[in-house]
């Protein structure tokens, strides 16, 4: 269908003919960015018709914009837009073409004849291409590390339309991304002001030593042709294996230049440099005390290099426990070997003799172990120990034990080298001792009122012996002294002596015995039907109480410390006064005492007075002894109470 502008022109020219148009095929025109784009108008004027008007339109969305109008009869009267011109063959010329010039263009011819007016349209579609700039590789890697996926560089094809495709080559052969050894990542960026696009392609590459001197480049493929970047070579580095020290010396000898070991850094490219360290500080070659010899060997099949460094070292005593190691320095970094400690040998110059056991003071009876130490390395395996009046060779050991040492063993001891007795060490040993002699000891049995002599003698290695006494576990103020023994002297006596960490202890158990003696016989009180009597005695062993009348025992007690015993009984009088005798006995003797007991309810004073009067009247010759007892025990008391 004709456009609205065409319809208007037909009306102006009085076109009344049929509106059907010849069908034209859309032609695609390719233009280049920045150059003049030529859009042809391949018209043909039918016989009998003449050209009245030629117009170029461009489709802009839903609208058509008139770019140029030309009247053949009035060539000076032409309308055209900026950058728009027309050639002699009516082709549309667009200068300085850009992406905004893409689109549909239509060339319209207005024709007339004697009988009819008509028009022809020739559409074209303009496509603008822009060839990218030559591809270049930017952000080039300084090197590639063998066996490690690394970014080699970025290929950039700038300002193209449409976007260019980028491929990578190695030595002229394409590289295909496999996700492991070759990884290619491409991006496209559009310039918002020009509409041009830039393609970037990042190549990550896992190099091998075969890639040394390899040439990498990239190609940009576009509708307008293919361009190739300048080739680029990247150094390939291979980190050597961790350095190790081999051929280690078994020991170093003082003042002798000795090969300590060989440090090896294998399979590096380029070759690593090796340095040596002692206790973390570098060892510097001086030709006398430190000599370092390095070599590099290249493997012809792999191109990798192995660096070896031999260290010869002149050690001193200060190198005992020194830690040696080596460092491999490479373009990819520095690695450090495991530290190495090598024994340092030097001869013995001094000995020392010490007491290994016991740790504290030596006391009589101890097992004393002497230890001989040498300052050489390794120390001697055998020593001479110089004891009292003898020399003992001890092999494969550096100690000697004195068994159950005595005070007579105190004095000076020595040890020396077997092959050089002038190198020796000495030690003075003091033996502490403490003797305690006590008499008597053990169980001692004595009679009351007998004497007892206690003797104690102390012999000690020091003059500061301290003596203490205890009786039955309680401290005594002074040593026990006995004149005439009493029952209260009985007990367990312990003597302790302290001196120089030593303690001696002896004891005796004193038992004081005696025939029992009644010390008191009393009537404690009267009850309605009975009387309680108490008999008190003293004696060791424990006295046995016997009553001559029928009694009921109430209670008894005995104190082993003083031998005092008490027996309380209850008697029932028969209605009149009666005599009651208390007897005590043990294996050493016996004693007895009698008391007059009145009937229940009779007061004691009256009972005694009556008894005394009866005794005075009735006393016969054979009763005098008993009467005297009554008089002594009852009459006197009655007299005292009566007064």
Q: How many domains? A: 5
Largest sheet: 8 strands, mixed
N-to-C span: 178 Å
Count helical runs. 3
Q: Which stretches are low in confidence, meaning pLDDT under 50 for 5 or more residues running?
A: 1-21, 601-643
* Strand element count: 50
Helical/strand content category: mainly beta
Give a brief outline of the structure.
This protein is mainly beta and 643 residues long.
Explain what this protein looks like in three dimensions.
This protein has 643 residues and is mainly β. It folds into 5 domains: 4-129, Immunoglobulins (Immunoglobulin-like), CATH 2.60.40.10; 136-237, Immunoglobulin-like (Sandwich), CATH 2.60.40.10; 244-345, Sandwich (Immunoglobulin-like), CATH 2.60.40.10; 351-429, Immunoglobulin-like, CATH 2.60.40.10; 513-642, Immunoglobulin-like (Sandwich), CATH 2.60.40. It is built from 3 helices and 50 strands. α2 runs antiparallel to α3 (624-642). β3 (50-60) and β4 form a beta hairpin. The strands form 13 sheets. Strands 39, 41, 42, 43, 44, 45, 47 and 48 form an 8-stranded mixed sheet that branches. Strands 1-9-8-3-4-5 form a 6-stranded mixed sheet, with helices on one face.
Which secondary structure elements does this structure contain, and how are they paired or packed?
Layout (H helix, E strand, L loop, with lengths): L3 H9 L14 E6 L4 E3 L10 E11 L2 E8 L7 E3 L3 E3 L5 E3 L8 E10 L4 E13 L6 E3 L4 E3 L3 E12 L4 E6 L2 E2 L7 E9 L6 E10 L8 E8 L2 E4 L3 E2 L1 E3 L6 E3 L5 E2 L3 E12 L4 E6 L2 E2 L7 E9 L6 E10 L9 E7 L2 E4 L7 E2 L5 E7 L10 E7 L7 E6 L2 E6 L3 E4 L8 E7 L6 E6 L4 E6 L2 E6 L7 E6 L5 E6 L2 E2 L15 E9 L2 E25 L4 E10 L3 E4 L4 E8 L4 E8 L6 E9 L2 E9 L6 H15 L5 H19 L1
Parallel strand pairs: 1-9, 11-20, 22-30, 39-44
Antiparallel strand pairs: 2-7, 3-4, 3-8, 4-5, 6-7, 8-9, 10-12, 12-16, 13-14, 13-17, 15-16, 17-18, 17-19, 21-23, 23-27, 24-25, 24-28, 26-27, 28-29, 31-32, 32-35, 33-34, 33-36, 36-37, 38-40, 41-42, 41-43, 43-44, 44-45, 45-48, 46-49, 47-48, 49-50
